[in-house]
Amino acid sequence: MQLVINGQEKDLQSSGTIAQMLKELDITGSHIAVALNFQVVPRSSYDQTPLHEGDKVEIVHAVGGG
Amino acid sequence: METAVETESKLKIADTVFNSRLIVGTGKYASFEQNRQALEISGAEMITVAVRRIELDKTKESILNYIDPEKYTLLPNTAGCYSVKETVMTAQLAREAGLGNFVKVEVIGDEKTLFPDNEATLEASELLVKDGFHVMPYCTDDVVLCKKLEDVGCSAVMPLAAPIGSGLGIRNPYNIKLILEAVTVPVIVDAGVGTASDAGRAMELGVDGLLMNTAIAGAKNPLKMAQAMKLAVQSGRLAFEAGRIPKKLYATASSPIDGLIDL
Q: pLDDT tens across A15-47, in order?
């Protein structure tokens, strides 16, 4: 399934949920957040939120800043 | 009998009490380890972080792997946002990432000066207060704006002393004093401090706290500057609470005039 993740086109093997996408991308940290098509997705719904062809996904974390 | 050491009063923002009046950023350090040490030495209990995309093909290390999350209250910022929409979404992502309920609202209005867009700052702050955040907006040193930010429910106001990263010090101490008179929420000077005397001067004006990043991270020796800033913020606050003597043009003797030997 083709997705746009953090501005990059990605072809994922898994065709399921946000939780499966994070697993495939090897993103395991607890301090991350996900937006799907410009809507913040609550952490508790990663398991139940399905992804669709062409979805725009943002995955963010904390970095150094002032 | 031992005399107790006098310490400065504590800073309270929203419902959290801080032992240190210094808030420190986590950008621009040479390494995570240097950053960790500088935070430790500074004594800061609130630290800022930014929210950015994870780089998919790189190791996903974060400053949060290096610090004890129990020790610090995080203040995620919305740095780099130019619109209300981006700002609100960045704050919501930070909260969802488990970075807490505080947010430093920073809506940039001009790329060259990094001055804030005050109208957008006010609008984003109001939306985020309604969404349950403790909002601490970075803003210009404008009395009317600071009053409006307080009115929409901000937990503090954070006027800049000089442009971000400029190190120019407190360019308009009179405006900062007027803001202190105008609002009841804590006033945190955010941005512009260059060295310890700037920090001391800001605190002597009576501001409730100071937020800095580049002044420490960009110093030749960030660890020594972290210590210098800790001491400057403490001594500046103590001097404010002590109440300085008035300035006078002429001398007044410190030693008694009576009882001089008569030659």
A: 689 999 999 999 987 899 999 999 999 999 999
User: Which chain B residue is nearest to residue A38, measuring alpha carbons?
Assistant: B89
- How does DSSP classify residue B109? -
Spatial separation of the C-alpha atoms in residues B160 and B139, rounded to whole Å: 6
Question: Six-digit token pair at B220?
Answer: 């030749």
- Output phi, psi for B184, to 5 deg: -105, -15
Across chain B, which has 263 residues, the per-10-residue mean pLDDT values are 84 97 96 96 98 86 86 97 97 97 98 96 98 98 98 98 93 97 98 96 97 97 98 97 96 92 87
- β-strands B158-159, B134-139 pairing: parallel
Rounded CA-CA distance A9/B206 in Å is 52
**Taking CA atoms, what residue in A is nearest to B104?**
A66
Question: Which of A60, A54, A49 lies closest to A9 in space, CA to CA?
Answer: A54
| Nearest-by-Cβ selection for B93 from A25, A33, A63 | A33
**Cα–Cα dist A50/B183, whole Å:** 47
What is this model's ipTM?
0.95
B27/A64 touch (CB, cutoff 8 Å), yes or no: yes
User: 3-state SS of A8-24?
Assistant: EEEECCCCCEHHHHHHH
Could you tell me the two tokens for B53? Answer: 């995309």
Q: Looking at the partner chain, which of B35, B96, B164 has a beta carbon nearest the beta carbon of A64?
A: B35
